[in-house]
Write a structure and sequence with these properties.
Blueprint lengths: L1 E2 L10 H11 L12 E3 L8 E6 L10 H9 L3 H5 L2 E4 L3 H13 L3 E5 L5 H11 L3 E5 L4 H15 L2 E2 L6 H7 L1 H8 L7 E5 L4 H13 L4 E7 L4 H8 L22 H10 L2 E5 L1 H15 L9 H11 L8 E6 L8 H8 L6 E6 L2 E2 L4 H7 L6 E8 L5 E2 L2 E6 L1 H14 L4 E2 L4 H4 L14 E8 L4 H9 L4 E8 L5 E9 L3 H14 L6 E4 L2 H8 L5
Parallel strand pairs: 1-7, 3-11, 4-5, 4-7, 5-6, 8-9, 8-11, 9-10
Antiparallel strand pairs: 2-3, 12-16, 12-17, 13-15, 14-16, 14-19, 18-20, 18-21, 19-20
Length: 524
């Protein structure tokens, strides 16, 4: 197997990487242009925040820089033997772009789970110059297959990060930061997958701005650089979360590790919810929707700010490293994101059995807390345990704790519980008397649903509730109520129908088939 450049594991002279970045400046702009820096308006943060817009590059991510530089640095003879790469998506697009521009052939191994948008873009950029082979479920599976193929065919392997020529290409991003005239920056936050971009960025920026602090940011369940630094050398993680698929690397490179160990000022970890919250921030401020790993740097920046690491008035930079995401992933991101400084939390709250008890509790919630999810099913117990999905600030939650303490109730945080995540609502339909299940639409504004419930709580008891905020102006809930008699049931139904166009927009009973599936018996 041949490599675009062989590197001694003992030779990590920073000058070497600096020189590779210098050389890359003469190559990469054959296929792309410099991307802009843009100030991020964040009035809640007492700092100047700037973002490097790599989502505006030719492949909507920074990886074109390293891929093209590594392939352009090969001899014509090396390229004629065939180029091989492994990638979860963005590096593959860079290789495809370079293969077409340089007139060579590339075989690209990608995990089967690679988002379709990234696969289709590889084909679009490379055309007849690329062949995609889907192997395994992770980048590492694809990487092993690619290296085996290289051994068999004498192809040239273009590593996505653990190669100084590739890293040199990525470093042109840092050169553009210096040349922009927006610096110097006090701090820089950049996502870490294999570590190539973080190493190159730190190498270049520290040469020009020796006082700058550069931090790598990783997901809590894909923190391969954090593990390597703790161990003293790269180690393979047993498990890698792929929510941020662009940084889902089981083991960092041996070369990138040495550079990151000597150049970075620290590595911090962020949760998927913190990443989602940063995606929301970029949408609300710049109307930009990055892929999850593309917002990881901002998530790290915000985490450091809220823990007091970033001083007042500091000038801070982060990189939107990519924006190649399947559209279907957006709904899950929206559900996990907070709003501004407010965070999502799921609580399982004890509520006494009885008419209006849940409504009474909801009315006691702090005014600034928003209900974005409600999961409830009646079980055989004097105390019921609905799950409330809430968005609020830390002070809001402190007020909620006071409400719970006044009620003598202890709520459990179930934000990471599997049954909550999968919306598994347990209930005992044999306990329901004269049940009525209705699909209700109501204006998605504060208090609209509570007003509806107050209209019916005198004759109805909740036995089932399934609601999740969708971001629309209309809220939709499947509500189950039970009554003391069939007459009460029909009276309530007529009262609800009369409310349509007032407190609620629309209401309709579930079908006979749905009623049977919900209760286990036919509608009487």
């Amino acid at each position: 197997m041949k490599s675009a450049q062989a590197s001694s594991s003992q030779d990590f002279d920073h000058n070497r990487l600096f020189e590779e970045i210098l050389a890359a400046r003469e190559r990469v702009y054959s296929v792309g242009e410099a991307t802009p820096l843009q100030q991020l308006p964040l009035p809640d943060l007492d700092a100047q925040v700037w973002v490097k817009r790599e989502d505006l590059g030719p492949i909507k991510a920074y990886k074109w820089r390293g891929a093209y530089n590594a392939m352009a640095a090969l001899t014509a003879e090396q390229r004629s033997m065939g180029v091989v790469a492994a990638s979860a998506g963005n590096h593959a697009q860079g290789v495809a772009l370079a293969a077409k521009a340089l007139g060579c052939q590339a075989v690209i191994f990608m995990p089967r789970s690679t988002p379709e948008v990234k696969q289709s873009e590889v084909r679009r950029f490379g055309g007849d110059h690329v062949e995609i082979r889907l192997i395994g479920d992770t980048y590492d599976d694809a990487g092993h297959a690619a290296r085996t193929y290289c051994e068999e065919t004498s192809g040239v392997y273009i590593h996505p990060y653990d190669d100084e020529v590739t890293m040199g290409g990525q470093g042109t991003l840092a050169d553009e930061v210096v040349m922009s005239g927006k610096g110097p920056f006090d701090r820089v936050y950049v996502a870490i997958g294999g570590g190539g971009l973080a190493a190159a960025l730190a190498c270049w920026l520290k040469r020009y701005w020796p006082e700058v602090k550069v931090y790598g940011v990783e997901g809590v369940e894909q923190a391969s650089m954090t593990a390597a630094l703790a161990h003293g050398s790269p180690v393979e993680l047993d498990y890698v979360d792929v929510f941020c698929d662009g940084t889902a690397v089981r083991k960092v490179g041996s070369i990138t590790f040495e550079y990151c160990r000597s150049l970075l000022d620290g590595v911090i970890t962020v949760t998927n919810d913190e990443v989602c919250d940063s995606i929301r921030t970029l949408w609300e401020t710049l109307r930009v929707i990055p892929e999850p790993s593309g917002a990881m740097g901002l998530a790290g920046l915000k985490k450091h700010y809220h823990t007091g690491e970033i001083g007042s008035g500091e000038k801070v930079l982060t990189v939107i490293s990519g924006a190649n995401m399947d559209f279907a992933q957006l709904s899950g991101i929206a559900q996990r994101a907070g709003i501004g400084s407010k965070q999502r939390r799921f609580l399982r709250v004890p509520i006494p059995e009885g008419k209006g008890s849940l409504v009474e509790f909801l009315e006691q919630l702090p005014e600034e807390i928003s209900i974005v999810d409600l999961q409830y099913g009646r079980n055989d117990s004097e105390v019921q345990f609905p799950v409330l999905g809430l968005i609020g600030s830390e002070s809001d939650y402190q007020q909620l704790d006071a409400v719970l303490a006044q009620r003598g109730a202890n709520a459990s945080d179930v934000s990471t519980d599997e049954d909550v995540d999968y919306r598994i609502i347990n209930y005992a339909p044999e306990l329901f008397h004269y049940p009525l299940f209705i699909n209700i639409e109501f204006p998605e504004r504060a208090g609209a649903f509570l007003r509806f419930m107050n209209e019916v709580k005198d004759i109805a008891s909740l036995c089932y509730f399934n609601y999740s905020y969708s971001g629309e102006r209309v809220g939709r809930a499947l509500v189950g109520m039970e009554f003391n008699s069939a007459d009460d049931q029909q009276a309530c139904l007529q009262r609800i129908l009369a409310m349509c166009g007032k407190n609620i927009r629309a209401a309709r009973e579930v079908s006979d088939e749905t009623f049977y599936r919900l209760t286990g018996h036919s509608r009487g």
